[in-house]
């Protein structure tokens, strides 16, 4: 279908149906361009909670759209492609996790938002990469904690806080595959550049990074940094917003032999303009969940948002 036709129709349908488009920073450029709000997981969850539109079209992955539905269940929440999953969410099946939790009854369960609603329902507190460290630091030092499902993010928080949280053995297939050696090589070619990395990256890469933070935190770091060049260790969709917010700066990515960055999240990239158009037109695929699951999964997410406000992480 013709791109201009798709863009026009998406904007028309959005208005006609009183819909809002929430887009994650890893979405395709053309989707970010059409989104009413773009942001990281934390900002988008908050936007979804406050949203008064009849329809929320979530351009991101399944757990994000699910979180929007949990926080605002009276809205119709659509996801352009239901197959848009996440390797972290898939690494943590609910039954197995429930057994693990039962083996450690004195532990508080903190789950990274990149997990299914069933895992959220088994958790005491949810976190995102934008608030995880501060939330953990705010808990009593002797509090025993299970952290799931990302062992890289959990390991990073253990390293910076000195905690010994028990970690679930999940990884983001995109960030975990980024090799420290390749980033060191690029930095040697550009010694004036700062390596900025998402905490889902493996520990070897995080150790050589000049800055570690969520997608939103990276954007803030670039703006406030005196540096001109950044080696970006996260999904390259974020480059759209980096170039928009700080166009005068230079961004470098590790490229494979074929010249591609190869760090695309295949799940995030499943959403296309055509699927977004069809999703608005047909009001499907829609996220649905039982009321019981919504109620159970909502508590630890609301707790996260309340604590994030108290700690001054969000307004
Ligand atoms: P952010 O919370 O930084 O947006 O990250 C979400 C994600 O899926 C990273 O891979
Ligand atoms: Fe999941 Fe990784 Fe894709 Fe983020 S980049 S959605 S953590 S697979």
Question: What would you note in describing this structure?
Answer:
This protein folds into three domains: 103 residues, Rossmann fold (3-Layer(aba) Sandwich); 96 residues, 3-Layer(aba) Sandwich (Rossmann fold); 81 residues, NadA-like (Rossmann fold). It is built from 16 helices and twelve strands. A four-stranded parallel β-sheet has the order 2-1-3-4, sandwiched between helices. It is globular, with a radius of gyration of 19 Å. The longest helix is centred in the C-terminal third of the chain and has 20 residues. The model has no long low-confidence stretch (mean pLDDT 96). It binds 1,3-dihydroxyacetonephosphate and iron/sulfur cluster. The site of iron/sulfur cluster (SF4) has 14 residues, from helix 5 and helix 10.
Secondary-structure map:
Blueprint: H1 3-16, E1 19-24, H2 29-34, E2 37-39, H3 41-50, E3 55-59, H4 62-71, E4 76-78, H5 87-90, H6 94-102, E5 108-112, H7 117-121, E6 125-127, H8 132-137, E7 145-148, H9 151-161, E8 166-167, H10 173-176, H11 180-189, E9 193-197, H12 203-208, E10 211-212, H13 215-224, E11 229-233, H14 239-245, E12 250-252, H15 273-282, H16 291-310
Iron/sulfur cluster binds next to helix 5 and helix 10.
């Amino acid at each position: 279908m013709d791109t201009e036709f798709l863009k026009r129709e998406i904007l028309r349908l959005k208005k006609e149906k009183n819909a809002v488009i929430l887009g994650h920073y890893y979405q395709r450029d053309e989707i970010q361009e059409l989104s009413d709000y773009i942001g990281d997981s934390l900002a988008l969850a908050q936007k979804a909670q406050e949203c008064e539109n009849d329809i929320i079209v979530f351009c991101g992955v399944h757990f994000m759209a699910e979180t929007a539905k949990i926080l605002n269940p009276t809205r119709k929440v659509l996801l352009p492609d239901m197959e848009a999953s996440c390797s972290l969410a898939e690494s943590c099946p609910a039954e197995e996790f429930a057994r693990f939790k039962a083996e450690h009854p004195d532990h508080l369960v903190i789950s990274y938002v990149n997990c299914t609603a069933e895992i959220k329902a088994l958790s005491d507190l949810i976190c995102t990469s934008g608030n995880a460290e501060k939330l953990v630091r705010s808990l009593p030092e002797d509090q025993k904690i299970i952290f799931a499902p990302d062992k890289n993010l959990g390991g990073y928080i253990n390293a910076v806080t000195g905690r010994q949280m028990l970690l679930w053995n999940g990884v983001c297939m995109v960030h975990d595959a980024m090799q420290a050696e390749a980033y060191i090589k690029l930095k040697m070619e550009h010694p004036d550049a700062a390596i900025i990395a998402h905490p889902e990256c493996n520990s070897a890469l995080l150790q050589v990074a000049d800055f570690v933070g969520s997608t939103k935190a990276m954007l803030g770091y670039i703006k406030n940094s005196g540096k001109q060049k950044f080696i970006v260790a996260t999904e390259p969709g974020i480059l759209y917003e980096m170039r928009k917010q700080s166009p005068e700066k230079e961004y470098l990515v590790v490229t494979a032999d074929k010249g591609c960055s190869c760090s695309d999240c295949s799940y995030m990239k499943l959403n296309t303009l055509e699927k977004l158009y069809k999703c608005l037109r047909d009001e499907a695929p829609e996220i649905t969940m039982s009321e019981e699951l919504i109620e159970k999964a909502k508590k630890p997410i609301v707790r996260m948002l309340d604590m994030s406000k108290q700690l001054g992480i969000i307004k």
